[in-house]
Amino acid sequence: MITVELEALLGRDSTEIDRFGNHNRKYLFQLQKYGFELAQLVSPAGLSLDAFPDDPESEVTRLVAKSGTRAPQYLGAYFSIHYLKLNAAAVSRFRLESACAKDRYRLYRTILGGYERKLSILVRALFHAYASFYSNGIKLVPYTVLNVGSLTDHEDIDVALVADAPKKATDLDMVVSNLSQEFFRRIMPLHFYLAEQFEERRYWGSLADYTKVLDIHLKDFVVVGQLLTATRLAGSQRLYKIIIDEVHRRYLSPEDNTQYREGFLRGTLGELDVLLGQRDLTEDSFNPKREIYRLIKLLVAAVRTIFHLRQPGIIVNLKSLIELDPAHAVEYRNLRRAFSFNESFRYLYNLLVIPTDEIQMENENVPEALSEIGMLMGFGKDPRGPLQALVLTYAEHLAKSLGAGLVLSHLLRDHLKEISIFRRLLADGLTPPGPGGKKRDAALNLLEDVKRTEKKIFWEEIPEVIQENPQTLARFVDDLARLPRIDQIEAVRSYVLLMTSDLKSLVELLIFLSNLPVPAGKKKRAGIADLFLEAFLECLNSFPHKVKDYGRLVVSDPELLARFVRAYSPDIIDRISSILASQGESWKVERQILWHRTLLVTEHGKSRHLGRLLDRVLGQRPEVKRLLGEPTRLKVLAEEVRREASLEQEFGRKRKLLGESFDIEMLRLALGTLLLAENPDWYKDYMAVVDDYVNDVLKTCMLEVWEKQMAFTRISFPAGLSIYATGGNARGEGLADDYDFIALLDDRAAGERSFYNKTVAKFVTAIGRHGLLAHNRFAEHVNSYVMTIGELRQHLDADTSEGFIDQSELVDARLVVGDPWLNGRLKREILRDRIYLKANEFLSAMVKELKDQDSFFRVQKPGDTIDVKQGPGGLRTINLVLLMAKAKFGLYEPITPLALEKLRAAAPNLDKEIYALERARRFIKRVRDVYRLTVAYSDAVRPEHMDELVPFVYGAVSNMSGRDLARDLAEHMATSRDAVWRMAEQLTHGSL
Fold first, then answer.
1. Nearest CA to 705 among 811, 598, 786, 618?
2. pLDDT, tens digit, for every residue of 173-223?
């Protein structure tokens, strides 16, 4: 809040300044601390603080001379008062004139133009004053300071410092370092982005430094764009002209040397593609700097290079372009109006609220602030109200800017084709000779031309040319195919070596070559494609730095890698993975190899089960394509979707989002099962994912049923209901295609059975859509999805012929969600009283089942199809004997590695058998999981697919074969079978 003392300094501007955002308090603080001393100092010197000075340069020079060591503080106060008054004057003009202006956009330009001009003069004076103070009499080398950004956002000043005689510029660096700190504290921060591109750490750069940056960063639209739009902020006018003339010579000259312009336009078009992909309607947030300012700035800078416009200034250039390019006059007018509106909007918001790029409408203070800005910009009498009018006008200008950007991007692309060096070489080299003309080796001639102009060629144009005219590639390949073999090899190697400077374009070319049709009579085409691939692999093997470049490409553009993997055989991709692995062990290399192996699975070696899951995920969330090889990021995405579901109020949408989150998690787990190192605790991750999904969906279904049928009394979730997983999901065995469960109801809630039945029915349908096919064996006994504890007691007491199957499911059961009190009853009244206290009966029935199963299947031999679940020693027999042990020793934990540890402690005599079963179970389950994900979702493993499983069972670089795997699998099952019978004998007849 402005004090009475400050009012005396600020005068009639105090009221306007008091409305400025809190970030302006640093200027008020400086005035509070030094302003009164400054006022006493300037009056005798004939300086005035009331109005903007006619000659700030002269005034601050006299001020420094009179201030002594206090000069930095007084200069800060001097800037503060004039800066605040300058802004107050601009805001007052908006307030008084915008509502009645005939041409509102012209007024915007006039106000901002005057503000920026005076602010530049003021900053220039302060820069020179601080430089003079800190140079302390030392004569500095000539320098110029370029303003390479905008002055409307009140955040910082983007500058580039150019020095002459750089060998003597050490003093300049020290002075600018001190000056920069003072600007940060008292004026505005100076941002030396271009200096960050130099090899040495310093503020300044010579003309040679900046030209080197332009040579290296040919396609860096930020670097080039800043220099193209630069204006002089301070320093030597002569030096400013030298650097600007050099920039203009490279980018704005109509001469034939178009290398720099071509590079800048290519970089610009890449960024424009990103900016033009933005939304064109207002949402809960918007970003005037990114969405409109950067878009228009880039467009104007790029189009300037076509029409050779040397005068800086976006508004000025748009006016010139309207006259020079009447075919696009509508687009330029739209951009001019949008820029005038947007910069005024940015200026006012960043002054009155806070300097920021993103405006969040959900912030409670923002709507009120935007309403005030709408009033200032002349929307006070708009029937929509100032807030709505401002936001909708912004949306209109954004839409028109995007539309103009789309049109002008075509203009830029057409111009690129005209100036392209490579296209000219291609046209000359591959044009067929005329009638009677001499036949040439076009591919070799093109190679010589390319070698001569290598540094001026942009290889990304090759994919563009091929897509426009596929016959270009066909003719090029056919021409190479006519050469002698030794010349083919040499030419292909030369092309590949040249293109390794842009590995992305080289990979694109390899993809095109692999897909090039090979018609009858043109079989040599395929040989050329093979030569290019071998030359590429040879290059990776020979140049470690190229392997690193390729590795970075893998992570930055996985969709390109996916197309490459799709185009070539798994053997080729394995060779590349081996080359990557040769670079040594590091998390970066491991990440790159993981991407290759992931894409090998998703593009070549996936079962229909995994394929359906992948299609479902990509259909819901296409962005997952870029995350397939990033398990951590997949998990983060799944959690974000789950959080989104938690905020959703509409039940159908909520279930859909929960399903999407679950599918992403299951895809992550499936790929992790195949590709990551085997983790003994993996089952915990799987159990957590499925349990969370079941819990969320059940809760959602319960609330939905209650809301739709108000006849039911609302019950706090999960009330008297308990859901138990049994079978594979109880044990944490991932990749189960069904969900065996038991739904138990407290006897006291039996009157609400209809409510619970509807809830569970909806739950079963919901999880079934995402691969969990629910099966409730006990529902068949009572013709209801849910059964009470009393009904379960009666069913077990009936002593049916298949009672041991029901008992085994109950022994195997694990509580997922439910009432702890009800779970206690299940343990006491069912497991303890009706199974564990009668363990001998249960064990006898289980032994009979083991015998029946053993006699049904013959012993497996290498070369046979092996049923890894039902066969002797298979997963089911292992599970049966472990359930026997649970009943014998009264254990309630599901059969997981943790439960086996407890079982060892309870029965040390069975330690050898438990260890053998655990080891066999882990190997057999690994084989089954891999088979289900890469071949078919089946328990019967066919011998002809064993080779496909080897890399995933034994590791990517294993020397094992499919025959070895079949042998090991048979041996593990035989070992398991023996251990099962020894353990069953001990449990039924031994003294434990």
1. 786
2. 889 899 999 989 989 898 888 888 887 788 888 888 888 888 777 777 788
Candidates 598, 616, 772; CA nearest to 686 is 772
CA 111, 116, 119: angle at the middle one, nearest 5?
125
Compute CA distances 126 → 114, 251, 781, 823, whole Å.
19, 32, 90, 78
Let me know: does 641 contact 971? Beta carbons within 8 Å: no
Instruction: Tell me the C-alpha distance between 747 and 726, whole Å.
Output: 22
Structure tokens at 582: 């040769």
The Cα–Cα gap between 469 and 479 comes to 16
- Greatest alpha-carbon span in the chain: 115
For the record, the structure tokens of 558 come out as 């996985």
Q: What is the pTM of this model?
A: 0.68
Distance CA 482, CA 103 (A): 69
Strands 359-360 and 285-286 come out as antiparallel
Q: In b/e form, how buried is each residue of 457-489, taking b as 16+ CB within 10 angstroms?
A: bbbebbbbbbeeeeebbbbbbbbbbebeeeebe
Q: 205: which strand partners?
A: 162
Q: What is the pLDDT of residues 479-491, one digit of tens each?
A: 888 888 898 899 8
Measure Cα distances from 163 to 43, 123, 212, 473 in Å: 37, 19, 15, 49
- Could you give the CA distance from residue 28 to residue 30 in angstroms, rounded to a whole number? 5
Give the pLDDT band (50/70/90) at residue 434: very low
pLDDT 10s digits, 864-900: 788 999 888 999 999 999 999 988 888 888 888 777 8
Q: Could you give phi then psi for residue 233, rounded to 5 degrees? A: -100, -40
pLDDT, one tens digit per residue, over 910-927 is: 889 999 999 999 999 999
**What amino acid is encoded at 743 in this protein?**
A
SS3 745: strand
% of the chain surpassing 70 pLDDT: 93
Q: Which amino acid is at 140?
A: L
Cα torsion 807, 812, 817, 819 to 10°: value is 50
Question: Is the separation of the CB atoms in 439 and 433 below 8 Å?
Answer: yes
**CA 706, CA 709: separation in Å to the nearest integer?**
5
